[in-house]
Amino acid sequence: MTPTEKRSEHLTHGYNRMVERVRSAFEHGTAASLLHAIQLCKDKAFELQELSKEEAERIGDFLHRDVQDAAEYLANSGGDLADWMRFDLELIEERLAESFFIVADRTCIELSQLAEEAQHVGEYLTGDVVGPGSLQCSACDHWVRFQETSQLPVCPACGGGIFKRPPAEQDL
Ligand SMILES: [Zn+2]
Questions:
Q1: Quick one: 132 and 146 in the same domain?
Q2: Residue 113 domain-assigned?
Q3: For 95-101, what is the mean pLDDT?
Q4: Per-residue DSSP letters for 8-70?
Q5: pTM for the structure as a whole
Q6: How far is the CA of 141 from the centre of ligand 1 (A)?
Q7: Ligand 1 centroid, distance to 119 Cα (angstroms)
Q8: What is the Cβ-side half-sphere exposure of residue 68, based on CA atoms within 13 angstroms?
C-alpha cells in the first residue's frame, strides 16, 4: 500500500467509525442533534488518538454534509436512500449502509422539527448574541442595528426585551 492509499484508508476508516459512533450516540440518546453527535464523535476520535484534531474536524464536516444532504433528500423528495445514492444499497457494506440510513433518517426527523421551529424563530431576546444586522423591538417598533456580532441590549426606547427581524422588503 502506498502512503497515499494508506492516508486515504486512514480517513475513510475514520469516517466510517464516525458514522458508527453517531448512530450509537443517537441510539443511546446521548446526542441531541446531528451536530452535537458529530461533535462528541470528533472529540472521541481525537481522545483515542485515531485522528488528529484537524482530521477529526474535516471528517466531521464531510459526514455532516453527507448526512444533511441525504436527510434533506429523504425529507423533501419522497425518495429513499438508494435514490439519493443513485445505486443499490446492496453495493454498500451492510453495516455501513444500515448505520448511515439510521443517522440520515434520524436527521430527517430532526429537520422536520427544525422546520416547525423555524416558524417560531424570528424572536430575539435581550442577552442573545446576534450577528450583524437590524432588529426591531416587538413592543415599540424601535430599530436597533448591529454592525458586528453583539449581545442584544434592552430596547433603548422602551426597555423591552423581545425583538424581531422583519422581512427584508420592509422599509428600514
Ligand atoms: Zn422598544
A1: yes
A2: yes
A3: 88
A4: HHHHHHHHHHHHHHHHHHHHTT--SSHHHHHHHHHHHHHHTTSS-HHHHHHHHHHHHHHHHHH
A5: 0.66
A6: 6
A7: 23
A8: 12
